[in-house]
Specification:
This protein is mainly α. It is built from two helices and no strands. It has helices at residues 29-42, 46-59. The chain is elongated. The termini are far apart.
């Protein structure tokens, strides 16, 4: 490993626009526990599983159907 590195000729990441963005979201404990169980089964981090699930919803234009008070 070098003591110093020269990044003067480095170029910008061409995939930077596709990188994930960090957010804060409140998720109930039962939901997190569910994804952590799935994580143990699949070997994927639970945050990745949540992202994959949400991406699937967005890509397939799934519409949330809620009924309140029933």
């Amino acid at each position: 490993m070098l003591d110093e590195y020269d990044f003067s000729t480095a170029r910008k990441n061409p995939y930077a626009a596709q990188l994930k963005r960090q957010i804060t979201i409140n998720i109930d404990r039962d939901t997190i526990d569910y994804f952590k169980e799935q994580s143990a089964l699949t070997g994927l981090p639970y945050q990745t599983l949540i992202n994959l699930y949400l991406r699937d919803c967005a890509v397939n234009h799934r519409v949330l159907k809620l009924t309140w008070g029933e």
